[in-house]
Each structure stands twice: as structure tokens, then as C-alpha cells.
Amino acid sequence: MLKHLLVGLALLGAFQVASAQDPVLLVAHPEFRDPAWRETVLIAAPLPNGGHVGVILNRPTSTTLGELFPEHASSQKVVDPVHFGGPFSADALVALVSSRESPGEGTFPLARDLYLALDGPTIDRIIEQAPRAARYYVGLVVWQPGELRLEVEKGLWSLRQADVGTVFRVDSEGLWHELSAAARGVRVRW
């Protein structure tokens, strides 16, 4: 069985939600000079405690699941690169999963037909049974209650409505340029 570095059980407990919330795409403002966030696009969804969770969509690595898990035959079949999802739990593998129903334990809905999977055995099962239904990330981003709202109010992020097509876009390298140009002058109500 593939052994994933898991996000802690306390973290999993914090992510339990009853139904999909309204996620947003966060597009870094062109003046956002912090190299960690420069030209990033994230998907973020609210947590019950008032915080938010998300992953960076446009940071593919040069590493595949097969390279991360050479002993796991199913991981060898996933040719797409693993993405850097964010600095929080950067040693944990998580997955965004396109599915009409919950992929299993340790997942929660981000949007209609979109789930964030945090549980190692569930991610193993997705890799083995439906690897193309997911995109795999190391790490994620977590905002404390009110933290993301403050960042938006400071103008660090432009908000766009999230959709599954954008989340699973094959060419994510040009995503920031496209969304940044489209977001200029557009206000999404927060």
C-alpha cells in the first residue's frame, strides 16, 4: 500500500463540512512581489471555523507520482506532474478530485463535483481506480479566520468564480496571465 505523508488528524477534523461552499479563484495582484505568491492562482474554499483552505493551481513540479512512490505500480501510470499546492504541510500529498460524489473518507467538497482529498488511503484508491479524475499536490494553503478577507481587502488578490474546467486545465503555466488580464476592473462580491 502506498504510504503518503498525511496531513495530521486534527487538520482532517478541521476540514469536515456538510456541503459544498462557494469556492473562489484567487489571482495574485501583479504588484504582489513576494516570490512565494507572485503570479499565483489558487482555489480557496471556506472552512466552518471562518478560515479558508486551498491549493495553488499553477505550480507544476518536474516530479511525477511514480518518482515520489517508485514501489507503487499505479503511481507509475500517472504521467502528469505533481503540483506544489502550498507551504502548509508541504510534505503531504493531497488531491483535487473531480467526482459527482464523495471519493471517500478524509475528503470534503470544495464545489459541485470537486473535492479535496487529504486521507492517504483514499488518495491511494483514487490513484488505483480513477487516477485521471484527480490532480495531485504536495502541500496546501490554509488561512486563519479573517486572514484571507484581510488579504483581499489589501488588494493582494483578485477574485474570480471557480469552475472545474479551470482547476483541471492542462496548461496551467499561462493561467495567471490570462486570469490577471481578465480580472482587471472586475469586482467579485466578497
Provide structural commentary.
Strands 1, 2, 3, 4, 5, 6, 7, 8, 9 and 10 form a ten-stranded mixed β-sheet that branches. The chain has a single domain, classed as VC0467-like. It has seven helices and ten strands. The relative contact order is 0.23. The chain has 190 residues and is α+β, with helices and mostly antiparallel strands. The chain starts with 8 loop residues before the first helix and ends in a 7-residue tail after the last helix. It has helices at residues 9-14, 65-68, 73-76, 120-129, 147-153, 164-167, 175-183; strands at 24-28, 41-46, 52-56, 60-64, 81-84, 88-98, 107-111, 114-117, 134-143, 157-161. The longest helix has 10 residues, at 120-129. Helices cover 23% and strands 32% of the residues. A hairpin with a 5-residue loop joins strand 2 (41-46) and strand 3.
Tag the structure with descriptive keywords:
190 residues; VC0467-like; 10-stranded mixed sheet; globular
Let me know the number of strands.
10
What share of residues are in beta strands? 25-35%
Please give the largest β-sheet: 10 strands, mixed
The CATH class is identified as Alpha Beta
Global mean pLDDT: 84
Structural class: alpha+beta
Q: CATH fold name, please? A: VC0467-like
* CATH architecture grouping: 3-Layer(aba) Sandwich
User: How many helical elements?
Assistant: 7
CATH-wise, what's the superfamily? Answer: VC0467-like
Count up the domains. Answer: 1
Radius of gyration: 16 Å
Helicity, as a percent range: 10-25%
Distance between the termini: 43 Å
Q: Specify the overall morphology.
A: globular
Query: From N to C, what is the helix and strand string?
Result: HEEEEHHEEEEHEHEHH
User: Uncertain segments of ≥5 residues (pLDDT<50)?
Assistant: 1-20, 186-190
